[in-house]
């Protein structure tokens, strides 16, 4: 009798680990509210997204909507992800791709490990490929390509080398040699400066007769002011930039038009 | 010119050997019988010895007149009081050693009458102090050639009373400056820079006492400046006895010649003092400056300096130590091989570390 109970329990446990309904609280990975996909396409994508989520423990969500109702698409994507309870693990790892058909906006929102797996550069590369499809209204093909690419990026992340701005080895080497030469030059310059203690006196401060220094006249006259402004430049080094969503969680992401 | 002139030598009242001024106890000391004597006592003793010498002050008349340009280049000769040997010196020497018997000898003709210094700071440091200071200067210098600090180099350090002019003057500076103050702030898209422009007017005056400038053409002016300052509170009335046991020169550069350099230093000092009054400005650029320096007088003094002239690989290196404060300066030779191996070592090491960091990040 005991054996049977434990068997059932084990079965339930396995079910809970493999079934999409259990893994992320029964939430659909593909939320096609704009109705861009056929039921068959939706099922195929759902299956694929589920496999990715199980394999890498990063939730994969695709959302399409007709309209943002005037809201900011980044905030919309973050909130949809946060308040519907997406995300795997304690840090709510996940990646959400969202399309809004009204003005043909797209946005990616990343959370937890998703932020590290999809760097700014990574998102740019992925959307470069995916936008070719989305721009031609080939949504199924676009989403399929997207999920294929996620597999590549997630795997790279799991291997400890998330895909980021590529490095130019020759350039790196030149920088290393340049800094080395500079450090060497500074070292011998400092050493050389210690070799020469002969230097002329600048002034004669120590020979000023006590209390003989008098500042007879001092006037500071304000003339005019000038104001100039320069545009702020956005920096683009590697890595992932993040912001806070309305729930207070940290999200990465990017946005654009298709 | 007379071929031979009289010299001054301070005889030990005890054993008759030549006495030297000792910086340790500020008295004359005898190396042979180990006695030390007060300056005044020896002076009186030697004066009474010399009274028998009738032609004693013959030179006084002749040499009160300053040397002409031709005379300065000429050699002079003296007869040593101890051994009777002939001492050959150039026109500016005021104290030296007999080349035959090594007795300290003072040539009073160059430090009396019109050439008598107003004051002297006696040596406060010994030759051993100077040797130690030289070794300390050489210590911890990775680029120094290994064989530079040899013992025979140290032996050549000699104490010299260097003739100095001490200038007294008043400096006036009137200046106008353009100054700016910068404020920066930013909003979402722009960085704003507001620059306020000001015109500043300043006028200051200061008196200077005793700015030194060496009056010997043999001494490098820069080296003499780098061992400053001398504290004139230790200065005493000149007495030839202080020169015994050291080398000494009389001045051969007129005080007028140093005035341009003194003017620069006075100007720099007033510049520095005025720049302390520029509070809270991002930049201050002088638009006009006027400096007036009124020289009142220049005092002639002898100041103590330990000198080391030495050659290394066909180059002369000069070191000088302030005989009063012990401040040592000089330019040490640099070993090219050591320099490049340090460069290569540090460059390679740092390059390696940077490469490793690049791999990790």
Describe it:
The complex is a heterodimer of chains A (258) and B (361). By secondary structure, chain A is α/β, with parallel strands linked by helices. Chain A is built from 8 helices and 7 strands, in the order H-H-E-H-E-H-E-E-H-H-H-H-E-E-E. In chain A, a hairpin with a 5-residue loop joins strand 6 and strand 7 (250-257). Chain A is elongated and about 100 Å long. The model of chain A is unreliable at 15-25 (pLDDT under 50). Chain B folds into 3 domains: 4-116, no CATH class; 127-330, no CATH class; 334-361. Chain B starts with a strand and ends with a helix. At the A-B interface, helix 8 and strand 5 of A face strand 10, strand 11, helix 6, helix 7 and strand 15 of B.
TL;DR of this structure?
The complex is a heterodimer of chains A (258) and B (361). In chain A, strands 1-2-3-4-7-6 form a 6-stranded mixed beta sheet, sandwiched between helices.
Write the layout of secondary structure elements.
The complex is a heterodimer of chains A (258) and B (361).
Chain A: H1 2-18, H2 20-23, E1 30-32, H3 39-56, E2 59-65, H4 73-83, E3 94-100, E4 105-111, H5 113-117, H6 120-135, H7 139-158, H8 169-193, E5 214-231, E6 242-244, E7 250-257
Parallel strand pairs in A: 1-2, 2-3
Antiparallel strand pairs in A: 3-4, 4-7, 6-7
Chain B: E1 4-5, E2 20-22, E3 27-29, E4 36-37, H1 39-50, H2 58-64, H3 69-73, E5 75-79, E6 86-90, E7 93-97, E8 104-106, E9 119-120, H4 127-138, H5 151-155, E10 158-186, E11 190-214, H6 221-226, E12 247-249, H7 259-275, E13 283-312, E14 315-322, E15 328-330, H8 336-360
Parallel strand pairs in B: 1-5, 9-13, 10-12
Antiparallel strand pairs in B: 2-3, 3-4, 5-6, 7-8, 7-12, 10-11, 10-13, 13-14, 14-15
């Amino acid at each position: 009798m005991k054996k049977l109970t434990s068997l059932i329990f084990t079965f339930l446990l396995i079910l809970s680990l493999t079934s999409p309904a259990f893994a992320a609280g029964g939430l659909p990975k593909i939320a096609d509210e704009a109705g861009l996909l056929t039921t068959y396409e939706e099922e195929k994508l759902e299956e694929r997204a589920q496999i990715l989520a199980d394999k890498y423990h990063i939730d994969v969500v695709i959302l399409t909507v007709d309209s943002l109702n005037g809201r900011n698409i980044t905030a919309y994507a973050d909130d949809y992800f946060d308040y519907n309870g997406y995300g795997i693990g304690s840090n709510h790892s996940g990646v959400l791709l969202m399309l809004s058909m009204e003005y043909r906006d797209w946005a990616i929102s990343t959370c937890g490990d998703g932020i590290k797996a999809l760097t700014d550069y990574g998102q740019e590369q992925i959307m470069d490929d995916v936008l070719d499809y989305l721009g031609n209204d080939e949504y199924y093909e676009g989403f399929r390509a997207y999920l294929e690419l996620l597999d590549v990026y997630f795997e790279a992340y799991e291997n400890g080398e998330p895909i980021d701005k590529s490095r130019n080895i020759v350039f790196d080497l030149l920088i290393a040699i340049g800094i080395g030469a500079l450090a060497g030059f500074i070292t011998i310059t400092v050493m050389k400066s210690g070799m020469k203690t002969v230097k002329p006196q600048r002034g004669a401060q120590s020979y000023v007769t006590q209390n003989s220094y008098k500042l007879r006249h001092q006037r500071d006259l304000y003339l005019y002011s000038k104001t100039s402004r320069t545009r702020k430049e956005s920096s683009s080094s590697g890595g992932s930039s993040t912001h806070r969503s309305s729930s207070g969680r940290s999200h990465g992401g990017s946005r654009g038009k298709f | 010119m007379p071929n031979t002139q009289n010299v001054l030598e301070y005889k030990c009242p005890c054993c008759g050997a030549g006495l030297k001024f000792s910086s340790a106890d500020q008295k004359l000391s005898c190396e042979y019988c180990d006695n030390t004597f007060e300056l005044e006592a020896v002076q009186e003793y030697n004066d009474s010895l010399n009274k028998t010498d009738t032609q004693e002050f013959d030179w006084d008349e002749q040499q009160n007149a300053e040397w002409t340009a031709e005379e300065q280049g000429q050699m002079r000769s003296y007869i040593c009081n101890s051994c009777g040997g002939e001492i050959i010196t150039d026109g500016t020497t005021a104290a030296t050693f007999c080349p035959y018997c090594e007795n300290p000898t003072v040539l009073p003709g160059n430090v009396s009458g019109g050439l008598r210094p107003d004051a002297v700071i006696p040596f406060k440091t010994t030759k051993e102090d100077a040797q130690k200071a030289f070794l300390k200067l050489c210590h911890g210098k990775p680029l120094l050639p290994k064989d530079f600090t040899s013992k025979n180099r140290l032996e050549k350090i000699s104490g010299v009373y260097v003739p100095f002019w001490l200038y007294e003057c008043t400096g006036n500076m009137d200046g106008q400056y353009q100054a700016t103050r910068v404020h920066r702030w930013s909003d979402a898209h722009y960085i704003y820079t507001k620059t306020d422009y000001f015109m500043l007017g300043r006028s200051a005056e200061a008196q200077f006492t005793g700015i030194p400038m060496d009056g010997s053409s043999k001494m490098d002016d820069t080296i003499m400046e780098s061992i400053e300052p001398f504290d004139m509170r230790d200065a005493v009335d000149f007495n030839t006895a202080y020169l015994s046991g050291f080398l000494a020169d009389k001045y051969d550069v007129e005080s007028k010649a140093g005035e341009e350099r003194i003017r620069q230093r006075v100007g720099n000092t007033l510049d520095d003092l005025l720049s302390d009054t520029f509070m809270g400005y991002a930049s201050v650029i002088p638009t006009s400056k006027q400096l007036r320096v009124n020289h009142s007088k220049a005092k002639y003094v002898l100041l103590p300096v330990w000198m080391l002239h030495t050659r290394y690989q066909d180059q002369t290196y000069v070191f000088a130590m302030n005989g009063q404060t012990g401040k040592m300066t000089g330019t040490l030779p640099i070993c090219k091989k050591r320099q490049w191996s340090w460069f290569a070592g540090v460059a390679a090491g740092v390059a390696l570390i940077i490469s490793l960091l690049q791999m990790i990040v």
